[in-house]
């Protein structure tokens, strides 16, 4: 008992002896709740919180086995980022965390370097963009192109600014976290400027994104993971290339990412799940399909069941495949113009096209989109498009209440995700839609009612004129 108590005491004491501190005196924080946290992959986590005293003073302890990015955040929800590392005791002073230029880092060498670069680099970027604009004028405008001296001066100044930025980073301790972090932060933060003002740098920037190792613990704990993924694919999407070329480039980037992730099962699942959702939200379906097939066919890691089902949709239910036939459930509502006796299964429908819609009464997007389909149904029907709604409801009364006024076929067996139809169509979320032709070939996977309605307008209404 005594030995156990001594052991616990040693551990407890060791933690506080080895722990680092974040202290500060920020006048505007007096009496406010202040949270202290860090990052773990795509998520942030709260480490501690306190009410700042009347003088604006606060103090937090942290103990990290690996360097990472932390943050201080108030009710204003504007984080102030910090480098948390062994031996990095941090002291801040100033007026407001929301206005970083008013805060001085009094102690913590890595954080002092971070603070200086965070203030100077955006100004360099602004100057670079301005000089770049002038450089193009002196290169291509006949009124100025003959002026060699200004053109040379602009080139010299641009080079000076670039070298100044490089010199700052080169002088950092190469073993420090800040020396790794700042170039990655620059890569992510410069994307919009490069896409708009310095398009000649796009290929090199994309190449730098492809070099990122997404299993690197430094990236995983940096708070930049989500931004790195989004910025990478946003730049590809906005690179000025044709859509076909964009998809080719996205495939190359996906290959590069999976090449790293294939050695770390946990990160593979987390990052693939996020990237897949990102591509779907941006309607980049060729890229999301490629990602799905790449992971399912070539990855050696185990894919968690939810993600595997999500990705399997693209292998089993991709465009050109034949959708499964099925018998309608006993709990099916048919509109007046469709015979219940003659329509026992999906293949009994004689319409040129059928939209399969999977949803539920308790799904917020379904509550918006299913009524929209009902409003558009007569228009779609006049163009040969039938609608079949498969509900994932579990309670008969809720299904009936939700579908009673719908003008199209509605069917449910109250087994939710275990429904045979839902499983055969590899549905992993609601609402999900598939557009089938009269042979049940999948010709479109609409991601919204608007996209489906646009297809009707373009291919059927405009096409028949």
What would you note in describing this structure?
It is a single chain. With 465 residues, this protein is α+β, with helices and mostly antiparallel strands. The protein has four domains: 2-107, Immunoglobulin-like, CATH 2.60.40.1120; 108-171; 196-316; 332-461, Glutaredoxin, CATH 3.40.30.10. It is 48% helix and 17% strand. The strands form three sheets. The protein has a six-stranded mixed β-sheet, covered by helices on one side. Strands 4-1-7-8 form a four-stranded mixed β-sheet. Strand 7 (90-94) and strand 8 (103-107) form a beta hairpin. Helix 2 (109-140) packs parallel to helix 4 and helix 6 (202-210) packs antiparallel against helix 8.
Largest sheet: 6 strands, mixed
Mean pLDDT: 90
- How much of the polypeptide forms β-strand, as a percent range? 15-25%
Going by helix content, strand content and strand pairing, the class is alpha+beta
- Weakly predicted, low-confidence segments: 3-17
Specify the CATH architecture of the largest domain: 3-Layer(aba) Sandwich
Intertermini distance: 89 Å
CATH first level of the largest domain: Alpha Beta
Listing every helix as H and every strand as E from the N terminus to the C terminus, the arrangement reads: HEEEEEEEEHHHHHHHHHHHEEHEHEHEEH
If helices are DSSP runs of H or I spanning 4 or more residues, what is the number of helices? 16
CATH topology of the largest domain: Glutaredoxin
Please give the radius of gyration in angstroms.
29 Å
- Classified in CATH, the superfamily of the largest domain is Glutaredoxin
Shape: globular
- Number-wise, the strands total 14
The helix content is 40-55%
Overall tally of structural domains: 4
How is the largest sheet built, in terms of strand order?
9-12-11-10-13-14
